[in-house]
Protein backbone atom coordinates (compact mmCIF):
# COMPACT_ATOMS: atom_id res chain seq x y z
CA UNK A 1 0.00 0.00 0.00
CA UNK A 2 2.83 2.41 0.84
CA UNK A 3 4.58 1.60 -2.44
CA UNK A 4 1.36 2.30 -4.37
CA UNK A 5 0.76 5.57 -2.55
CA UNK A 6 4.27 6.96 -3.00
CA UNK A 7 4.38 5.95 -6.67
CA UNK A 8 1.02 7.57 -7.37
CA UNK A 9 1.85 10.71 -5.42
CA UNK A 10 4.98 11.19 -7.51
CA UNK A 11 3.00 10.76 -10.74
CA UNK A 12 0.31 13.16 -9.53
CA UNK A 13 2.81 15.85 -8.52
CA UNK A 14 4.97 15.26 -11.60
CA UNK A 15 8.13 14.71 -9.56
CA UNK A 16 10.93 12.38 -10.57
CA UNK A 17 10.04 8.71 -9.87
CA UNK A 18 10.69 7.47 -6.31
CA UNK A 19 14.25 6.26 -5.78
CA UNK A 20 14.58 3.05 -3.77
CA UNK A 21 16.70 3.35 -0.63
CA UNK A 22 17.70 0.73 1.95
CA UNK A 23 14.91 2.04 4.21
CA UNK A 24 12.22 2.70 1.60
CA UNK A 25 11.81 5.41 -1.03
CA UNK A 26 12.99 8.96 -1.66
CA UNK A 27 11.08 11.47 -3.80
CA UNK A 28 12.69 14.73 -4.90
CA UNK A 29 10.30 17.70 -4.74
CA UNK A 30 10.93 20.92 -6.67
CA UNK A 31 9.18 24.27 -6.47
CA UNK A 32 7.73 23.74 -2.99
CA UNK A 33 8.96 26.20 -0.32
CA UNK A 34 7.98 23.77 2.44
CA UNK A 35 9.51 20.59 1.05
CA UNK A 36 12.63 19.70 -0.94
CA UNK A 37 12.06 15.97 -0.79
CA UNK A 38 10.55 13.14 1.22
CA UNK A 39 11.63 9.75 2.47
CA UNK A 40 8.72 7.31 2.68
CA UNK A 41 9.25 4.17 4.73
CA UNK A 42 7.06 1.08 4.21
CA UNK A 43 7.55 -0.06 7.81
CA UNK A 44 8.37 1.58 11.13
CA UNK A 45 11.42 -0.45 12.10
CA UNK A 46 13.96 1.24 14.36
CA UNK A 47 16.97 0.58 12.14
CA UNK A 48 15.15 1.88 9.05
CA UNK A 49 13.97 5.05 10.80
CA UNK A 50 17.40 5.79 12.28
CA UNK A 51 19.16 5.22 8.95
CA UNK A 52 16.71 7.37 7.03
CA UNK A 53 17.00 10.21 9.56
CA UNK A 54 20.79 9.98 9.60
CA UNK A 55 20.90 10.29 5.80
CA UNK A 56 19.26 13.73 5.87
CA UNK A 57 21.35 16.92 5.95
CA UNK A 58 19.14 19.28 3.91
CA UNK A 59 16.47 21.27 5.79
CA UNK A 60 12.83 20.85 4.73
CA UNK A 61 13.33 17.16 3.98
CA UNK A 62 10.42 15.05 5.24
CA UNK A 63 10.07 11.51 6.52
CA UNK A 64 6.69 9.76 6.35
CA UNK A 65 5.80 6.24 7.43
CA UNK A 66 2.88 4.10 8.63
CA UNK A 67 3.28 4.47 12.40
CA UNK A 68 2.07 6.31 15.47
CA UNK A 69 4.36 9.31 16.15
CA UNK A 70 5.06 8.35 19.77
CA UNK A 71 6.30 4.98 18.55
CA UNK A 72 9.14 6.40 16.48
CA UNK A 73 9.95 9.70 18.24
CA UNK A 74 12.76 8.15 20.36
CA UNK A 75 14.52 6.99 17.19
CA UNK A 76 14.91 10.44 15.63
CA UNK A 77 17.97 12.61 16.07
CA UNK A 78 17.89 16.29 17.03
CA UNK A 79 16.48 18.72 14.47
CA UNK A 80 13.35 16.79 13.52
CA UNK A 81 9.97 18.49 14.04
CA UNK A 82 6.61 16.76 14.11
CA UNK A 83 3.69 17.78 11.92
CA UNK A 84 0.06 16.70 12.08
CA UNK A 85 -0.24 12.99 11.37
CA UNK A 86 -2.00 11.88 8.22
CA UNK A 87 -3.91 8.72 7.35
CA UNK A 88 -3.12 6.19 4.64
CA UNK A 89 -6.50 5.07 3.26
CA UNK A 90 -7.73 2.63 0.63
CA UNK A 91 -10.96 1.45 -0.98
CA UNK A 92 -12.23 -1.09 -3.49
CA UNK A 93 -13.72 1.15 -6.16
CA UNK A 94 -17.46 1.06 -6.88
CA UNK A 95 -19.48 3.09 -9.42
CA UNK A 96 -21.84 5.76 -8.06
CA UNK A 97 -22.97 7.78 -11.14
CA UNK A 98 -22.46 11.19 -9.48
CA UNK A 99 -24.59 14.23 -10.34
CA UNK A 100 -23.23 17.74 -9.81
CA UNK A 101 -24.97 19.70 -7.03
CA UNK A 102 -27.42 22.31 -8.29
CA UNK A 103 -25.71 25.43 -9.57
CA UNK A 104 -22.44 23.71 -10.38
CA UNK A 105 -20.90 22.07 -13.43
CA UNK A 106 -17.97 19.66 -13.67
CA UNK A 107 -15.10 19.10 -16.07
CA UNK A 108 -12.84 16.06 -16.22
CA UNK A 109 -9.54 16.16 -18.10
CA UNK A 110 -6.79 13.55 -18.35
CA UNK A 111 -3.22 14.59 -19.13
CA UNK A 112 -0.84 11.66 -19.31
CA UNK A 113 -1.49 9.44 -16.29
CA UNK A 114 -3.17 12.19 -14.23
CA UNK A 115 -6.91 12.94 -14.29
CA UNK A 116 -8.19 16.30 -13.05
CA UNK A 117 -11.77 16.91 -11.88
CA UNK A 118 -12.89 20.51 -11.47
CA UNK A 119 -16.19 21.90 -10.25
CA UNK A 120 -17.23 25.36 -11.43
CA UNK A 121 -19.88 27.64 -9.95
CA UNK A 122 -22.48 29.55 -11.96
CA UNK A 123 -19.97 32.33 -12.65
CA UNK A 124 -17.46 29.88 -14.03
CA UNK A 125 -15.12 30.17 -11.04
CA UNK A 126 -13.49 27.04 -9.65
CA UNK A 127 -15.27 25.88 -6.50
CA UNK A 128 -13.63 22.48 -5.93
CA UNK A 129 -11.03 20.23 -7.45
CA UNK A 130 -9.31 16.87 -7.16
CA UNK A 131 -6.90 14.77 -9.15
CA UNK A 132 -5.68 11.21 -9.33
CA UNK A 133 -2.77 9.30 -10.78
CA UNK A 134 -3.40 6.07 -12.66
CA UNK A 135 -1.15 3.08 -11.94
CA UNK A 136 -2.99 0.42 -13.90
CA UNK A 137 -5.30 -1.43 -11.51
CA UNK A 138 -4.77 1.20 -8.81
CA UNK A 139 -5.29 4.96 -8.63
CA UNK A 140 -3.96 7.43 -6.08
CA UNK A 141 -6.24 10.38 -5.29
CA UNK A 142 -4.59 13.70 -4.48
CA UNK A 143 -5.27 17.41 -3.87
CA UNK A 144 -9.01 17.23 -3.18
CA UNK A 145 -9.88 20.81 -2.22
CA UNK A 146 -13.12 22.76 -1.85
CA UNK A 147 -12.89 26.55 -1.72
CA UNK A 148 -14.06 27.91 1.62
CA UNK A 149 -17.06 29.77 0.20
CA UNK A 150 -18.40 26.53 -1.31
CA UNK A 151 -17.93 24.10 1.57
CA UNK A 152 -20.68 21.95 3.10
CA UNK A 153 -22.46 21.65 -0.23
CA UNK A 154 -21.33 18.16 -1.15
CA UNK A 155 -18.67 19.24 -3.64
CA UNK A 156 -15.87 17.18 -2.10
CA UNK A 157 -18.13 14.14 -2.14
CA UNK A 158 -18.98 14.81 -5.78
CA UNK A 159 -15.32 15.23 -6.80
CA UNK A 160 -14.37 11.95 -5.15
CA UNK A 161 -17.19 10.04 -6.80
CA UNK A 162 -16.42 11.62 -10.17
CA UNK A 163 -12.80 10.51 -9.94
CA UNK A 164 -13.87 7.04 -8.80
CA UNK A 165 -16.20 6.51 -11.74
CA UNK A 166 -13.51 7.67 -14.15
CA UNK A 167 -11.01 5.29 -12.56
CA UNK A 168 -13.37 2.37 -13.04
CA UNK A 169 -13.72 3.26 -16.71
CA UNK A 170 -9.96 2.88 -17.09
CA UNK A 171 -9.93 -0.56 -15.45
CA UNK A 172 -8.79 0.39 -11.94
CA UNK A 173 -10.17 -1.54 -8.97
CA UNK A 174 -8.27 -0.09 -5.99
CA UNK A 175 -7.95 3.45 -4.69
CA UNK A 176 -5.35 4.81 -2.26
CA UNK A 177 -4.65 8.23 -0.77
CA UNK A 178 -2.99 10.09 2.06
CA UNK A 179 -5.61 12.04 4.05
CA UNK A 180 -5.53 14.84 6.56
CA UNK A 181 -7.66 14.50 9.67
CA UNK A 182 -10.33 16.72 8.10
CA UNK A 183 -10.28 14.79 4.83
CA UNK A 184 -10.51 11.43 6.58
CA UNK A 185 -14.09 12.12 7.68
CA UNK A 186 -15.20 12.76 4.09
CA UNK A 187 -13.47 9.70 2.70
CA UNK A 188 -14.93 7.42 5.36
CA UNK A 189 -18.47 8.43 4.33
CA UNK A 190 -17.56 7.16 0.84
CA UNK A 191 -16.39 3.76 2.08
CA UNK A 192 -12.68 4.41 2.33
CA UNK A 193 -10.93 2.55 5.16
CA UNK A 194 -7.93 3.67 7.17
CA UNK A 195 -4.93 1.45 6.45
CA UNK A 196 -2.51 3.13 8.87
CA UNK A 197 -1.62 6.39 10.60
CA UNK A 198 0.99 8.33 8.61
CA UNK A 199 3.56 9.77 10.99
CA UNK A 200 5.10 12.86 9.39
CA UNK A 201 8.18 14.82 10.47
CA UNK A 202 10.40 17.41 8.81
CA UNK A 203 14.07 18.24 9.29
CA UNK A 204 14.38 21.79 10.67
CA UNK A 205 17.80 22.02 12.36
What's this entry about, in short?
With 205 residues, this protein is of the alpha+beta class. It has helices spanning 2-13, 46-54, 69-72, 155-169, 181-189; strands at residues 19-21, 24-28, 37-40, 61-66, 80-82, 86-92, 105-111, 114-120, 126-134, 138-146, 174-179, 193-203.
Please characterize this protein's 3D structure.
By secondary structure, the protein is an alpha+beta fold. It has 2 domains: 2-87 and 198-203, no CATH class; 94-172, Aminopeptidase. The chain is built from 5 helices and 12 strands. Strands 1, 2, 3, 4, 5, 6, 7, 8, 9, 10, 11 and 12 form a 12-stranded mixed β-sheet that branches. A hairpin with a 5-residue loop joins β8 (114-120) and β9. The model has no long low-confidence stretch (mean pLDDT 96).
